[in-house]
């Protein structure tokens, strides 16, 4: 009789374990657990994201930001203009040209344009003492644009190279 009691207890424990496994494993109506989830299109038999073994991988979220544009315009007779964070290349160029004209430039031309990057203007003296002369360089991040402008100034044979201005046109979260 004692043997039967042990067997009965063992079977009852097995029954409870089996029952709890089926009862707690998945409740599709709640949209929880590893069973699936609900969204606007109905019930799905897989969780949001994906499983690789026991490691849950969060779905990748892509946020598309609109590009930003910048430009530099200058005139040989003096005057320069810089625009940044414009929504189009055309808008950036037009703004830079207008700033150049407002600064006294008579024959302004676009010297550089960027999309999602930075522009730096450097100035330096020629070896014969004439100048200052300017160079424009681009790069990202800002430090790279600055270093590129200094290097371009030195490569042009100028001395006493300095940064005149730097501006970045980088998309940002609203």
From TrEMBL:
<dbReference type="Pfam" id="PF13827">
    <property type="entry name" value="DUF4189"/>
</dbReference>
<keyword id="KW-0732">Signal</keyword>
<feature type="domain" description="DUF4189">
    <location>
        <begin position="69"/>
        <end position="168"/>
    </location>
</feature>
<dbReference type="InterPro" id="IPR025240">
    <property type="entry name" value="DUF4189"/>
</dbReference>
<protein>
    <recommendedName>
        <fullName>DUF4189 domain-containing protein</fullName>
    </recommendedName>
</protein>
<feature type="signal peptide">
    <location>
        <begin position="1"/>
        <end position="25"/>
    </location>
</feature>
């Amino acid at each position: 009789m004692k043997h039967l009691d042990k067997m009965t207890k063992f079977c009852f424990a097995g029954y409870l374990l089996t029952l709890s496994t089926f009862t707690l494993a998945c409740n599709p109506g709640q949209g929880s657990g590893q069973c699936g989830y609900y969204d606007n299109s109905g019930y799905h038999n897989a969780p949001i994201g994906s499983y690789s073994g026991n490691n849950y991988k969060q779905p990748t979220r892509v946020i598309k930001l609109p590009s930003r544009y910048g430009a530099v315009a200058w005139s040989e007779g003096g005057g320069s203009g810089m625009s940044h964070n414009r929504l189009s290349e055309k808008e950036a160029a037009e703004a830079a040209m207008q700033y150049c004209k407002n600064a006294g430039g008579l024959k302004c031309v676009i010297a550089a344009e960027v999309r999602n990057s930075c522009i730096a203007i450097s100035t330096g003296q020629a070896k014969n003492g004439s100048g200052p002369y300017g160079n424009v360089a681009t790069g990202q991040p800002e430090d790279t644009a600055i270093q590129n402008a200094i290097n371009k100034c030195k490569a042009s044979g100028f001395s006493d190279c300095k940064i005149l201005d730097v501006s970045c046109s980088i998309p940002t979260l609203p």
